[in-house]
Amino acid sequence: IGPPGDPKNKPLVWNKSDVDPGYLEWYSGDMPLELTIASLIVGEQALSQKMSSPSSAALFEVELPAGFTHMRAEFELASGEKLGAYYVYVTRLADADG
């Protein structure tokens, strides 16, 4: 994956037919998940926080250098299983130097 706008980037597409059939019925959205830990890895920084139940979001404030980076966000269930976050909101708060 290249930086945003790179013409070599291809759109990400999720196809239900590509999912292992054993996982299709894993979660139908009819009850809340027991999230215990939220984690964010962005660039060289790894952060995590305990989730209070029931929570629908985790908030991280991170200082980042200018430029392209990668980010991964995930939640841990009470069972210890880890799930990727479905989406994230990113907001630029202010420039570090003023």
In short:
With 98 residues, the protein is mainly β. The protein has strands at 35-42, 45-50, 71-77, 82-84.
Blueprint (SSEs and pairs):
Elements: E1 35-42, E2 45-50, E3 71-77, E4 82-84
Antiparallel strand pairs: 1-2, 1-3, 3-4
- How many distinct helices? 0
Describe the global form. Answer: flat
* Major sheet: arrangement of strands: 2-1-3-4
Oligomer: single chain
Largest sheet descriptor: 4 strands, antiparallel
What is the beta-strand fraction? 15-25%
What does this structure look like?
The chain has strands at residues 35-42, 45-50, 71-77, 82-84. It is 0% helix and 24% strand. β1 and β2 (45-50) form a beta hairpin. It is mostly beta strands and 98 residues long. It contains no helices and four strands. 4% of the residues are buried. Strands 2-1-3-4 form a four-stranded antiparallel sheet, with no helix packed on it.
